Amino acid sequence: MLEVSEIHDATYWNNTLSTLPYAHILQSWEWGEFKRTTTGWQPTRLAFQREGKVVAMASVLIRSVGPLRVIYIPKGPALNYADSDLVADVLDHLQALARRKWAVWLKIDPDVIAATGVPDEEDDSPNPNGERIRKTLQERGWQFSADQVQFRNTIAIDLTEDEDDILMAMSGNTRRKVRTAYKKDVSIRAVGVDEIDTLYKLYRITGQRDDFLIRPPDYYERAWKDFLQAGLAHALVAEYEDTPIAHVILFHFGQKCWYFYGASSNQERNRMPNYALQWEAIKWAKAQGYTTYDMWGAPDAFNENDSMWGVYQFKRGFRGTVIRHIGAWDYAPYPPLYKAYTQLWPRILGVLRRRNR
């Protein structure tokens, strides 16, 4: 039988969470605070104990949508998904929580691997544990979510390999571009919170060039500054003649380091600064003792029609392993309410957006 308690101590939460299987930065104390202050999600942090030992944790985000509530556990909960009894007990508690809160839906998207490799190619390898978890969710009435909030697929580099082996495993073209950056006098340095403005300017330029949504500066100040100050993020800037021309922002927790943000200016792109930045990021993560470098994002459909295809081609050159997770799943304690919400809410949002225009 599990004992469940709510945790209110940030240090205890992070230190304990970091020891659990499937620990993720999006389950950290800081991520819950970031979502609370920027988007209105209210975090409740639950620890599940068995015989006095914490065996699972869930940072539960709850948000009101008019008179209704929705619940999301980003990249969680963290637990040993090979332990079927533990999975069942935790899901029982979370489903009961959703019913008590009169939630429209409860969404989870743990980093459980469904398969590795590119679908229908030689390296395509289904993961038995992932298949078992998907079957468990289906039998419990959970539905594969139409709203996949986080990237379902990614590319991960094994940092337990020797540095030279990681470099030599890259495609010849990628290795050449890494070396080109250094030959063309690109330098890389770490930056702190005092240079948030520099990071944002480069990110804004990238958003304008690549046509993706850029939020106001204070959003990124919270996203970057708080994590840098907490020691959970690391920023690197590439420069040419003392002028910043690109950056990466890494988030790190437990055994993983994630490439969360990247940006570049419209100048000096022929100097290949993004390649040197990735190589320096990989080396930094390895030196810190992380075992995995997660490049955070790969296509849902592995073909040229996917919007991430160009980014995927860049990442694929570093020759990590393609990892396909089970994705986000929704539990609807009250199915008619869930059906009405999923059908009507997009229309309501459309009307609101048209009015705002």
Task: Please give a structural write-up.
With 357 residues, this protein is of the alpha+beta class. It has 2 domains: 3-113 and 127-146 and 327-356, 3-Layer(aba) Sandwich (Aminopeptidase), CATH 3.40.630; 155-324, Gcn5-related N-acetyltransferase (GNAT) (Aminopeptidase). It is built from 11 helices and 17 strands. The strands form 2 sheets. It has a 9-stranded mixed β-sheet with strand order 8-7-16-10-15-14-13-12-11, with helices on both faces. Strands 1, 2, 3, 4, 5, 6, 9 and 17 form an 8-stranded mixed β-sheet that branches. Helix 2 (29-39) packs antiparallel against helix 8 (217-229) and helix 6 crosses helix 9. The radius of gyration is 21 Å and the shape is globular.
Describe what is shown at a glance.
With 357 residues, the chain is of the alpha+beta class. It is 39% helix and 27% strand.
Architecture blueprint of SSEs:
Layout: E1 3-6, H1 10-17, H2 29-39, E2 42-50, E3 53-65, E4 68-73, E5 78-79, H3 84-100, E6 103-108, E7 113-116, E8 125-126, H4 128-139, E9 143-144, E10 153-158, H5 163-169, H6 172-183, E11 187-191, H7 196-210, H8 217-229, E12 233-240, E13 243-253, E14 256-264, H9 273-287, E15 292-294, H10 309-316, E16 321-325, E17 329-331, H11 335-356
Parallel strand pairs: 4-6, 14-15
Antiparallel strand pairs: 1-2, 2-3, 3-4, 3-5, 6-17, 7-8, 7-16, 9-17, 10-15, 10-16, 11-12, 12-13, 13-14
Helix pairs in contact: 2-8, 6-9
